[in-house]
Amino acid sequence: MKKNYKGLSLMSLVFALLTNLMYAQADSTEVASIYGFYAYSSSLMNASSAPELTIQGSASHTSTGVQLTPASSGQFGGLFINGRTFTSVNGLHVEFEYDMKNGTPLTGVYGDGLSFFLYDGAVTNPTIGAPGAGIGYSYNRTKDTYASQRKAGLSGAYLGIALDEFGNFKSKRFQGESRMNGITGVTWSQASSHISLRGARGAAINTTGLGAGFTGYPVLVTRSTLSNSGTVGRILQSDRSYQATTNTLSSVFDLRNNAGEFRKVYLDLIPHFTSPTVTDGFDIKVDIQTTQGGTPVNVINYYHYKTSVPYTENANPQTTDFDISDVEGAATSQTLNATVPAVLKLGFAAATGAAFQQHIIRNVKLTLPYAAVTNADVTSTCKFQPVTIPVFNNDIAYKGAISIATPPTASNANIDYSTFSFTKTSDTDLTLYRKKVTPQGTWSYNKSTGIVTFNPSSGFTGTANMTYTVKGRTVKDSNGKIIEPYGDTAYRSVPATITVNLKTSGCIYSVISNIMVTQDVK
Q: Is 7 a residue whose pLDDT tops 50?
């Protein structure tokens, strides 16, 4: 709720202004994160100069985001946020928007899709994986006739999540020009529009084709978004088989959006605790928001990605890949080392083949799971009149231990008012800015009430903007151990924008009389 001070007398207006300024708190500082993590966000729109971003293949920077592929056949592009690393000890929360549109289908299905991936932060010059069905994450082996099409999987790969429109990312293949482990022997009722997870890069097995970069990347879990019935999913078991799964989606949808608006992906990697102090990989959750402002649809619900994964290499040549034989050999049992890297980097890729479409991504955000969330605020004021904004009304912070069984609760009551800060100068800036003066006016914050006041300058016209961030609270047990870490700087929200528009009508201004009043002299 805002106040715009309509109809105030001059003295009342001055008093109101002085009161707001008096209660605006002075700048202070916060303690550096003990986890070494800082939130990241980028619109990716006109982002060609962003130093942390690198693109490969057919990817290009545009005004609407990064176009990974145009809508034409045989395209292959990738984006790396290679200039930023993220610590993995507390997990990761990722959001991004995507659009799949235009193009030409093959047998009624567009292709291929896009992937989001995490890789070892120690890799300085990453290379995307195979095109086509690999969608830039997994490998492609071939016989010698097609040697030019051999391509190792993503370097340093830890986890790949594909929005696989065509549906080949999950499948085993053994043919001359394409050899890749995966799910086999399944007659899918819905083979396309799958969310599929593949695991980490494997170890070299032999020198006859299954060398470094050409093993591992096993399918972990896959689900179609098109149906809640029939054969729509599989999940890897500890005995290396794939168990059928059923869908209980709140609504079914095609990953490709023909309505012309971007969709949003929410990804959570929550540390899987086997004891209060020991973890084994992550629990992975994938949701997709299909309409702007709509409730996200849960597709993958906390799949446990362990640090050791039994799987099968089941696309092996009888003798070698380095000849012209098409004879398949026996599958072999392997165990993937999926130890979580100390730091992670991330990227995206997309590919097209005979079926093709345009793939675009934008508005990438990376925070910790259960970091505070701030949302945009918009209000208006009249010339010379201050306006107050209760910014926390639509924001949240978390309280409670980190657990997927009993998740922490979200509420604006969990926000620590003292952690508020206006725009910071960098990710590692530890100053808490409580007052900002701009050409448009003065922004001030009252940490007792959580209220932001904007006092427009005399020359203010149009629109004024300011960003802010906030955190929750840290709670320790009787032994001083942190049991709720939400007050750490790593849990600071991604900046949200406050917008104040100057009204040009409906304003009431006080009339100040300058008539001199005198007394009669008697």
A: no
